[in-house]
Amino acid sequence: MAEKIRLTAPQAAFSRRLGHEFADPSLLRTALTHRSHSSPHNERLEFLGDSILNCVVAHLLFERFPQLPEGDLSRLRANLVKKDTLHELALGLNLGEQLRLGEGELKSGGHTRPSILADALEALFGAVYLDAGFDRAKVVVGNLFTAKLDAIAPDQPIKDPKTRLQEYLQARRQPLPVYTLAATDGQAHLQQFRVLCEVASAALQTEGQGSSRRAAEQEAASRALEKLKA
Amino acid sequence: MAEKIRLTAPQAAFSRRLGHEFADPSLLRTALTHRSHSSPHNERLEFLGDSILNCVVAHLLFERFPQLPEGDLSRLRANLVKKDTLHELALGLNLGEQLRLGEGELKSGGHTRPSILADALEALFGAVYLDAGFDRAKVVVGNLFTAKLDAIAPDQPIKDPKTRLQEYLQARRQPLPVYTLAATDGQAHLQQFRVLCEVASAALQTEGQGSSRRAAEQEAASRALEKLKA
Fold first, then answer.
1. Residues annotated as region Disordered (chains A, B) (predicted)?
2. Whose CA, among A31, A86, A203, B171, lies 20 to 30 Å from A1?
């Protein structure tokens, strides 16, 4: 920290591609430094960045899919933050050519190794967070993931759980689920509905609750899907 | 969201114990609502809050233990965010008496069930985040976890990896590790040291790098510990 660090021109260009200008350029440099090169290297930043990434993607999904139950949000997130996706995004940023690797890693092609690239990208998220705070990291991560998030929207999650359950069963040539209203509680303006969803072919019965019968059915269907896919 | 929500006096008191006054009290109410009670319930907030908690604790550990490698930080975090710890913190807040549970859960003692309490506490972290942003959630989580974090400091992680490796082997009556300098690279003011750590009893050899011989030894010891404990 004592010496004042100046970024190289390619590092500065990379920083612009990432979408963040670092107040403390040493953070960028550390995030790009693999442990085979020198210390400080990027592993601690990766630990931090991984949790920032998970948190930002959790919030982005939470906002985008206000009706989706927790289990679906978890699955979507797992798909977005996996190594393959990070590797692909790192390639889009030409991250490999900025990596600082030790001799051995360099010779064995470490700058194209998916895990090294994915880890460095996570470390960069940690570096942005330390440099400028969570909201800034959210913007950087959000911009990088916009296309991925948009790509989710049209298919699976925009379909509601009842539709997905129906399609799941039809694809397996199994009979459709049967929904029955089990109970209605509460006064007129605060009614709560309890609905049962029965999937006979799987000997499965789930329950859903909601402020409308439809909402209760959707929840019951969502839980049935979770169990069928478990 | 249409109706204006007013907290009950006990809810307002609970909110003060948690350390956050909600601009939108409906978030607090949702976080305290179990799925057995009504919708909206706290499962989506729990999904969000879990990631906030992980992220905040990651940063707190990152700051407190600037020398600790990533593997140690992960282990410490796993210990802090586990259900038992959350349950204990929830008890300290008297969270159970604020939970909104359905009839069945109420009768079967749901308000004392550790998983229900732990989940609701995570949901509360999500609610604070949505209500007032990440930095506010960090303060709330940080205050709750201060004692837990302080309790870590005196023992394990304050000891450096070389000391811990030595103690680990002594406890098992095995010979001490042998460190050898493998290489020194770079110019005088940017020297890099590579050190090997050999644990003969486990037929194990690890390597560490650093800007001093001692730093390289610590890293090699840390990796040896990781492998011995794997």
1. 207-230
2. A86
Chain B contact set for A210 (CB, 8 A): 39
Q: How close does chain A come to B186, measured CA to CA in Å?
A: 10
**Taking the domain A9-155, which CATH number applies?**
1.10.1520.10
Residues of B with catalytic roles: 50, 122
Peptide bond into B10 cis (omega under 30): no
User: What is the complex's ipTM, to 2 decimals?
Assistant: 0.71
CA distances (Å), B85 to each of B119, B148, B176, in order?
12, 9, 35
This prediction has a pTM of 0.71
Enter the CATH code of domain A161-229.
3.30.160.20
Min Cα distance A173 → chain B (Å) is 32
Judge contact between A33 and A149, C-beta under 8 A: no
Q: Along chain B (230 residues), what's the average pLDDT of each consecutive run of 10 residues?
A: 76 96 96 93 97 97 91 91 95 96 90 95 98 97 94 64 88 90 76 90 91 88 88
Nearest CB to A47 within list B39, B44, B73: B73
Mind listing the pLDDT tens digit for each residue in A180-212? 998 888 766 667 889 999 999 999 999 998 888
A185 is in an annotated binding site: no
Widest Cα–Cα separation across chain A:
73
Domain B9-158 sits in CATH at: 1.10.1520.10
Residue B219 with chain A: CB contacts under 8 Å: 39
